[in-house]
Amino acid sequence: MTVRRVLETLALAAGTTARARELREIDAALRHPVATSRRIAVVQSGGGAGATTLVARTARALARRRGGGVLAVDAAAGDAALARALGGAVDARGLEELVAAATGVTRSRQARALLPDAGAGLVLAGRGGTRVPDDEVVQALGNLVGRFFDVVVTDWGHRTADEATRIARRSHAVAVVARADRADAERGLVLAARLATEVPTTLVLADVGATAGPTSSLLREAARTLEVPVRVLAHGHEGALRDPAARLPRRARTAYARTAGLLLASSQTPVRVGA
Predict the structure, then answer these.
(1) What DSSP string runs through the chain?
(2) Number of structural domains, the chain?
(3) Is the per-residue pLDDT at 181 higher than 90?
(4) Domain span at 99
(5) Given 4, 64, 67, 170, which is the most exposed site by the fewest CB atoms within 10 A?
């Protein structure tokens, strides 16, 4: 065997080992035990950034690793967008109807009987609509039904800074989704920095059109001083936006799974108010 072939073989082995280690780390993060139900809120700083896609992908990644115990909630304006992102065959009740039906629920099996199965142990609440659901309705749903699930991931859609702040105060972790274009990303960072004083917050940049490279480098430096983690979904996110239920390339699936693990970990990290 030539020296070159030996080096190529060693490089391949090293790459395989690194990949296996990365997958083990992601798997451990997604399976990490929780003491009480964790509420993860996903908001976007501008329309069409991909919050619904992020909720669908991260919630499914968590459900697959945890053997169920994950609830996805559609609290955004729009007609059943989250249901479509989860495959389109999920017939979910509206949130107000669910709250009325869940009054008096005391057991997990009662809660699950009210919610449609979206596959792989993931269940769905809410079906969108022409108006944004009232925050109090979503909060009531969490108190009545969400407590029976390890993780509740809620798609809040596009919200104002004041609305997002109220949402953050009722959550254990927040993901702010913004497009990676510089102007959108900077708006996302401003919102994420504000929410980070309330709850652990992650800025997720959706790279549509391969614009994330220079933008993320600039934002990472700014975010470092604000202690706001920045995740960039650069691989296949554009395809996920076009068809949220489509199977993505391996690197894209890994990126979503790693982001899900990061959000779960941050939901168990106390925030330092005023940091």
Answers:
(1) --HHHHHHHHHHHHHHHHHHHHHHHHHHHHH---SS-EEEEEEESSTTS-HHHHHHHHHHHHHHHHTS-EEEEE-SSEESHHHHHTTS---PPPHHHHHHHHTT--SHHHHHHTS-EEETTEEEE--EESSPPPHHHHHHHHHHTGGGSSEEEEEEEE--HHHHHHHHHT-SEEEEEEESSHHHHHHHHHHHHHHTTTS-EEEEEE-SSS-HHHHHHHHHHHHHHHT--EEEE-SSHHHHHH-TTSPPPHHHHHHHHHHHHHHHHHTTS---TT-
(2) 1
(3) no
(4) 32-266
(5) 4
